[in-house]
């Protein structure tokens, strides 16, 4: 699936970092393997949210640097395979995304899906799983932070929230972070809206965080706020200030 001159499916930043935070970005990239052409999708459409999470790579990279934290970012477009979906879910290989047809995904057989999974999905999630296991083995705590972004308008409906914090079974850290974001005074912050986490529709949090008993937050930032370098930097700086405070409050609540 991936030729020798193509980039690997994921990249890890600061592997020796000692921070408790582990950042992941399932939709950081928008590349399509040469073998798949353009999937029948225009360049303009591939630059939209259907192709990747706009702005989240830059936020994650800068946040990792400021926190001194390890980050793992996925390289290829969610149109090839969505790395935050169980591979058996229909949305893992979308035939239509936000009303845009994806011709290259129509009628994929099991062999075609398996090839994409083995080339992109499996290495990315193996890197995350290996990182968590290695940290556990050396006694390093892990707070799993899944980084995402969302569109300001969806099917004609404006989304007024600036950020959202998502969670499933263990909301402890997520709720603390949501409260701290609201306390900033200039943000509308929601919980499990415009998305919610579930075993049927999500992969990262249920598999890596909840199965390992980790505290976590899945963070969504509205894309118009991080569509520029200045916006990316501002949000990275904000989160670099708030995430350690959230961890401190979590530890205080456990005493």
Describe the protein's architecture and organization.
- The chain has 255 residues and is an alpha/beta fold.
- It has one domain: Aminopeptidase.
- The protein is 35% helix and 18% strand.
- It has six helices and eleven strands.
- A seven-stranded mixed β-sheet has the order 1-3-2-6-11-9-10, with helices on both faces. Strands 4-5 form a two-stranded antiparallel sheet. A two-stranded antiparallel sheet has the order 7-8.
- A hairpin with a 2-residue loop joins strand 4 and strand 5.
- The longest helix is centred in the middle third of the chain and has 28 residues.
- The radius of gyration is 18 Å and the shape is globular.
- Keywords: Hydrolase.
- GO terms for molecular function: hydrolase activity.
- InterPro entries: N-FG_amidohydro, UCP029730.
Please report the distance between the alpha carbons of the first and last residues.
Answer: 50 Å
The CATH H-level superfamily is Zn-dependent exopeptidases
Oligomer: single chain
Whole-number radius of gyration? 18 Å
Helical proportion, percent range: 25-40%
Shape-level CATH architecture:
3-Layer(aba) Sandwich
Q: Report the structural category.
A: alpha/beta
Order of helices and strands: EEHHEEEHEEEEHEHEH
Query: How many separate domains make up the residues?
Result: 1
| Beta-strand content bin | 15-25%
CATH topology, which one?
Answer: Aminopeptidase
Total helices: the number is: 6
Number of strands: 11
* Lateral strand order in the biggest sheet: 1-3-2-6-11-9-10
Low-confidence stretches: none
Shape: globular
Identify the CATH class.
Alpha Beta
Question: Mean pLDDT, as a whole number?
Answer: 96
Biggest sheet character: 7 strands, mixed
InterPro entries: N-FG_amidohydro, UCP029730
GO molecular function: hydrolase activity
Keywords: Hydrolase
């Amino acid at each position: 699936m991936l030729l020798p001159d193509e980039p690997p499916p994921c990249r890890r930043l600061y592997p020796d970092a000692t921070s408790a935070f582990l950042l992941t970005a399932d939709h950081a990239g928008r590349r399509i393997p040469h073998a798949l052409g353009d999937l029948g999708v225009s360049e303009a459409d591939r630059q939209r949210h259907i192709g990747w999470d706009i702005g989240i790579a830059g936020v994650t990279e800068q946040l990792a640097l400021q926190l001194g934290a390890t980050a793992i970012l996925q390289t290829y477009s969610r149109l090839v395979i969505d790395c935050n979906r169980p591979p058996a879910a229909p949305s893992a290989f979308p035939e239509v995304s936000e009303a845009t047809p994806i011709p290259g995904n129509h009628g994929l057989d099991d062999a075609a899906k398996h090839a994409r999974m083995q080339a992109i999905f499996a290495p990315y999630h193996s890197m995350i799983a290996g990182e968590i296991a290695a940290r556990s083995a050396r006694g390093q705590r892990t707070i799993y932070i899944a980084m995402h972004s969302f569109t300001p308008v969806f099917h004609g409906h404006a989304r007024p929230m600036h950020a959202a914090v998502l969670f499933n079974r263990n909301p402890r850290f997520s709720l603390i972070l949501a409260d701290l974001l609201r306390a900033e005074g200039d943000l509308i912050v929601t919980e499990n809206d415009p998305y919610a986490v579930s075993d049927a529709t999500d992969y990262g949090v249920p598999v890596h965080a909840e199965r390992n008993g980790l505290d976590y937050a899945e963070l969504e930032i509205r894309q118009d706020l991080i569509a520029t370098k200045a916006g990316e930097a501002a949000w990275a700086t904000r989160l670099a200030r708030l995430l350690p405070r959230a961890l401190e409050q979590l530890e205080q609540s456990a005493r």
